[in-house]
Design a protein that fits this description.
Layout: H1 2-22, H2 25-30, H3 51-57, E1 67-76, E2 81-85, E3 95-96, E4 105-109, E5 121-123, E6 129-133, E7 146-152, E8 162-164, E9 168-170, E10 175-177, E11 183-186, E12 199-203, E13 208-212, H4 215-221, E14 228-235
Antiparallel strand pairs: 1-2, 1-4, 1-14, 2-3, 4-5, 5-6, 6-7, 7-13, 8-9, 10-11, 11-14, 12-13, 12-14
Keywords: Signal
Signal peptide: 1-20
Length: 238
């Protein structure tokens, strides 16, 4: 008999506790009971999630791609504007010191990060082409070698030079774009598949542009034809 009574008391207490837990805080206060503590991690009925919680539970979105069209501005190592890349009949190599109608116009689509490699397409009436490297030397510190600059076919990112005909080997996806400064940096890949530290070099004597791995070593090997480092920027003005 005592066991039966004790079981009934326990069942009654459990029922009361369950009912108390199920009622709202307003009902608990009306009955003289303390309010329940708030539950975090979900929105309670009648309450909207705070902006912080909503942001934490939302999925991050990637920055959209953006297409840029303009001309490539060339600046010297001192930041001085030298001019824009020229669009000669013989190629793009050199700075245009004449009418702006002879400037090379380009277009490219930015990557989702500041470090993604991109192709830069040359806009002309002679068909689709890109700008990049046109030879396959090995660039390295202490080496006086260089690779040529010109119009190229489209090649995969991180690819070593792709043979084109008997005398050329092209790379196009060698550029990165800084959306804040609008600078274009070059990342040449050596024939062994390893990326080389690459400097854009300018010879003001014959108005030519090419790429080197060590500009000091190049100048030491060519005392009568010194070159200086330059930088490329996308100029969006017409």
């Amino acid at each position: 008999m005592r066991v039966f009574v004790l079981s009934c008391v326990i069942a009654l207490l459990f029922s009361v506790c369950s009912s108390a837990a199920a009622i709202t805080n307003a009902q608990r206060l009306a009955r003289g009971l303390p309010p329940l503590p708030p539950k975090f991690g979900r929105a309670l009925p009648g309450y909207a999630r705070t902006p912080t919680v909503a942001a934490e539970n939302s999925s991050p979105s990637s920055a959209p791609h953006k297409t840029f069209t303009g001309r490539i501005l060339v600046k010297g190592h001192d930041g001085k504007r030298l001019g824009h890349l020229s669009d000669r009949a013989s190629g793009i190599n050199g700075v245009n010191f004449g009418a702006s109608s002879a400037d090379l116009h380009v277009s490219f689509t930015s990557s989702r990060s500041q470090h993604g490699l991109i192709d830069i397409q040359a806009i002309d009436a002679h068909g689709t082409s890109y700008i990049g490297t046109t030879s396959n030397a090995v660039l390295a510190a202490g080496s006086s070698t260089f690779v040529s600059f010109g119009k190229v076919i489209k090649t995969p990112a991180h690819s070593p030079p792709v043979p084109v005909g008997q005398h050329h080997a092209d790379e196009s996806a060698i550029w990165t774009f800084d959306s804040r400064s609008h600078e274009l940096n070059v990342h040449y890949v050596n024939p062994n598949g390893h990326e080389a530290k690459t400097t854009i070099a300018y010879n003001s004597h014959d108005n030519t542009i090419f790429f080197v791995g060590d500009i000091g070593a190049y100048n030491a090997a060519h005392p009568g034809s010194h070159v200086s480092p330059i930088t490329f920027y996308i100029d969006l003005t017409v």
